[in-house]
């Protein structure tokens, strides 16, 4: 491509000043923002059984989710949960388009919060535009400084909360007050805080347009029955200004009065009247804007509305179709599988490690001995007693360990054990089973196999 001399290949993005608008979808968006951000900031402060209710304790390799403690051995559940989350996104996108982007995406909700602080300190859209154009003065400095103080405080609190999901938040707060926070904790807190500040304060729609991979591939999940936000071209065109008293149909005009309010409220700065665009995050602000104009003009609402391509062309929309059926079936199977697996999960893990340093030992009285280390992990939150046994070879017995062992709630007990059998029964290699059973509930029982080595025949 020939580049004109002196011309830059880079075009800096123009700052967008979304106009404030109220309406049904704005209320919905505010409720979603308050609920989601509220949950994010409150959840790490909740307690359960004298510990933090939700804590991803990476050094201890334990995830606490209210009454549930997940261990590295439970990774398949976590993987299944992530697959369900991804599949749900595909399912809801096929049904309702970018509903997640417009109302629940972290980038959207934090940007909403930052714009609210901007409006609080710098005023409405036109006041903000005027302020940015104005030369520096004491008033401008005061307004800009107030905004920065609010933004930075909020961003730092966000970073603190984020780290509070990985390290106990109460202790973290005390450590910060005592200036004794660890290097990595400080790094992640500042990193997440400044990422929030940059993304929600400055990058805003550019994150959706240039950085979000979902925006790029979501169109592959769309079809003509997917709910989208669209301008009804047949009804709106030809667009043009007119007085309220004019019969626009007689004047040969459509319902669009070309007021551009739908463009002014758009957080990504696009014109919905140009058709479906990948920059549209489906926030529905243009619906509220256009409905308010339709109300003023006494025209029916819905010139810009949630619709489907089929519906726009007066064809019927199908909610149940092969794509949604496949997603729904897969989701049902996976969610059912996850619930069943969680409901039947035994809250104890037994690991058996055979002593690799010795094959076997010959003891007096024709006894063969093998050494093992048993690792008993009590996944429940309360201390528990377990009985131990070994089976699989006639006359086999455990030695050097009590019949009953106690393990703390969420604790790991490492137990060296000796297993003995008579020489004539122990010739060769045998498969044996270690069994551990909770003394208070015979249903909580785990069997783990291993090998017992004896002399060669
Ligand atoms: S076009 Fe409408 S729905 Fe899409 S981002 Fe802009 S205001 Fe939101
Ligand atoms: S808000 Fe409605 S009437 Fe105004 S320009 Fe947009 S589509 Fe046309």
Task: Give the topology, please.
Elements: H1 24-42, E1 47-48, E2 51-52, E3 54-57, E4 62-65, E5 68-70, H2 75-96, H3 99-103, H4 106-122, H5 125-133, H6 138-163, H7 169-177, H8 183-203, H9 205-211, H10 213-217, E6 228-231, H11 233-236, H12 261-264, H13 285-297, E7 304-307, H14 309-312, H15 322-343, E8 348-354, E9 361-363, E10 367-378, E11 384-391, E12 397-399, E13 404-407, E14 412-422, E15 429-438, E16 441-453
Antiparallel strand pairs: 1-2, 3-4, 4-5, 6-7, 8-10, 9-10, 10-14, 11-13, 11-15, 12-14, 15-16
Bound molecules: iron/sulfur cluster (2 copies).
One iron/sulfur cluster (SF4) binds at residues 229, 265-268, 270, 272, 280-286.
Describe this structure in words.
The chain has helices at about 25-40, 75-95, 100-105, 105-120, 125-135, 140-165, 170-175, 185-205, 205-210, 215, 235, 260-265, 285-295, 310, 320-345, and strands spanning about 45-50, 50, 55, 60-65, 70, 230, 305, 350-355, 360-365, 365-380, 385-390, 395-400, 405, 410-420, 430-440, 440-455. It is of the alpha+beta class. Among the domains are: about 15-70 and about 105-205, no CATH class; about 350-455, Immunoglobulins (Immunoglobulin-like, Sandwich), CATH 2.60.40.10. The longest helix has 26 residues, at about 140-165. It is elongated. The N and C termini lie far apart (about 80 Å). One iron/sulfur cluster (SF4) binds near residues 266, 267, 268, 281 and 283.
